[in-house]
Structures are given as C-alpha cells and as structure tokens.
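[09:14] KT: can someone run the structure on this one? pasting the chain below
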Amino acid sequence: MSGFVEKPEPLQVPGLVHLHTGKVRELYRNEAGDLVMVASDRMSAYDWVLPTEIPDKGRVLTRLSLWWFDQLADLAPNHVVSTELPPGAPADWEGRTLICKSLAMVPVECVARGYLTGSGLAEYQETRTVCGLALPEGLVDGSELPAPIFTPATKAEVGEHDENVTYEEVARQVGAETAAQLRQTTLAVYSRARDIARERGVILADTKFEFGHSTGDQGEEPVLVLADEVLTPDSSRFWPADVWEPGHAQPSFDKQYVRNWLTSPESNWDRKGELPPPPLPEEVVAATRAKYIEAYERLTGLPWA
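[09:31] RB: done, structure tokens below
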C-alpha cells in the first residue's frame, strides 16, 4: 500500500477547472485552455506523499525550473506561457504557479544517467545492464559512466513504481521517430545541464524529463516540448563534487535527509509494511529545506531571498 498519507482537498478557484492532484503539484485548466500548474510544499518518499510539508519547496522547484528553461531554450522549447497569477488565485500561489501550454504528453519518463546509482545500480548489479544497455565490469555506486545513457521508464500513478524499460519498448509504444527524438533531446539537455552544474561544483548524476507534443498552427508538424519541472532536486540527483567518491552512496542536495530518517530506528516505520510514514521532526524539515535552497543557490549563483 502507498499513496497519500492525507490527500489534500484541491482549492477551487473561479475560472479554473481542477484536473489532477499529483504528488507535488495541483493541475488546473483556465478558460483559455492553458494549464495552470501549482507546486505545493508536499514531500514524497518511498511512494508515499508524507504528512509533513517542507516550507518554500514549491517555490524552489518553480524558480529553479524557470532558470533551467532559460539555459536550455536553444536545445528544446518549453511549455511555460506565463508566471502571472490567475485572477482570484490565493496570494500563497505567488512564486509557485506556472501557466503552461496544453500538450499531448508522451507517456514516458525520459531518464538520463551520467553516473551509476539508484535503480540503475540495482539492475547493473544483477545483469551488468541498465534498460538493456550493456555497461563495463567493475562499476560501483557513484561510478561515472563512460558516456551518458538514456534509460527510459514508464510513468506510474501516484503510489506506484515507475518501471525501467528498454529503448526498443519505447519505440514500440510511441513510434521510432518520436523515440529517437526523445533520446537525442534528453541526452543533449542532460549534457548541457551536467556541464553547467559541474562549473558550479555540483555533479548531476541523473535526471528525468517529461515531454509533450504541441501542434503547430495551420496543420504544421507537432513539436516536441519540454514540460513539467526540469533539473530540480525532486527530479534529479545532485551531488557536491568536492566529496564525490565512488563506492558508496553520495551526499546529495535533495530529500536524502527525509529518506534517512524514515529508514532509521528513530522513525519506527516499516518501509515494507502497510502503515503510512509518520510526520517528520522539525530538524529533518529544516535540514531538507536548507538542502533545496542550497541546490538553488549553488546552481544558479543567485541568492534565495
């Protein structure tokens, strides 16, 4: 069992139709047909959306995504139309709301890996492959790969696991041309972001993107558009480069404090049981918030305040 510990009631705003409650975001449609994405401060871990929020997390994700969209604009168009608040929206939506183009989403999590860890490491240890791609012998947790690889996954519902799939399976699902475009764009965007992060003393170990098709005017060919969030601590693994040492789990700028506490004796929570996780202690909340803000400041070079 997994999902929301306490599923929130979506806020009703005049002129907006609520479409979906995700792990972190609320999704609406406005009267013009655009999507309104609102990033909450919710935190998810181990397929659960936790009962405790992380202050400012939604604003960090939104501001960092906007910064990255600017860095990547020549590689891939993105879905952002505006950051203005819809009329009648609550003041709390300021800084966490994006007005976006409505796209025909591609049902694939486009994952790029430059380093071996997480589910990629688990698969490698069993088969010496990741998503059907053969890798050299002797790699360990945190090893840099000879070259970045495209390791797609199927998109799962809230509470379910994304499943790694082969490139051939993606081609069967979405067509050879779209699959090739997904792989090429994913690796190009990852490589750009990896180099930018590296200049700032941060390793981008892996990340995931979502894409959709925007139909052009007057019957033009559909365009592949970068959507959702990009290169945030929720969708990426960022490691401090100065302490990177393959052979064990790396310190990271993300929810690792949360994962560590949940799996510690202090939480008294059985990850494999049916009971939901407990509320987070104040010190874990504060440390996690600090890591998200540090990621923003180190990557962008801008102060959070």
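[09:33] KT: thanks! The mean pLDDT is 93.
[09:34] RB: yep, looked fine to me
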